[in-house]
Amino acid sequence: MSRVGKNPVEVPGGVEVKVDGNVVTAKGKLGQLSFAATDDVSISLEEGKVVVKPANDSKRARSMWGTARSRVENLVIGVSQGYTKSLEINGVGYRAAVQGNALNLQLGFSHDVNYPIPEGISIVCEKPTAVAVSGIDKQKVGQVAAEIRAYRPPEPYKGKGVKYADEVVLRKEGKKK
């Protein structure tokens, strides 16, 4: 049984949720998102809460129950508060800057890396070594942050590279004499 799926999703003030069959649409101050669930779950709106239940007793229905509930919660949080992922850049001469509609990264390569900023995502560089990726779609924010990190992941000896702000890089000891 899904422990996640049993809890209904609270709809905060300022967020309007519509359920049309298995399509859930959330509209808030930051924008509008929708999610189409599979036929294995049934979604209903009851007393200001979104309730997700399995349509039958199959294994797939029970596994999609918690997934659908989490996706609906991500919609509601996204349109009301939004999501932000913070990245840190460590290394001598490593820096980032937003130039127009692209993120310019200097990561120790012979060339600069220009990452085009996708639609619906905003990237802010408070410092040359700090990048904040934000938007209303949790999946898209995480994907953009992962793509930026993939250009130069942190290495274990000096910790140089792009890492998440809350990521801990396990350091290794260098070679001994």
From TrEMBL:
Protein's job: This protein binds to the 23S rRNA, and is important in its secondary structure. It is located near the subunit interface in the base of the L7/L12 stalk, and near the tRNA binding site of the peptidyltransferase center.
HAMAP family in the cross-refs: Ribosomal_uL6_B
A Pfam family hit: Ribosomal_L6
Organism ancestry: Bacteria, Pseudomonadati, Pseudomonadota, Alphaproteobacteria, Rhodospirillales
InterPro entries, A to Z: Ribosomal_uL6-like (IPR000702), Ribosomal_uL6-like_a/b-dom_sf (IPR036789), Ribosomal_uL6_a/b-dom (IPR020040), Ribosomal_uL6_bac-type (IPR019906), Ribosomal_uL6_CS (IPR002358)
Positions of the Large ribosomal subunit protein uL6 alpha-beta domain: 11-82, 91-164
GO cellular component, one term: ribosome
Protein name, as recorded: Large ribosomal subunit protein uL6
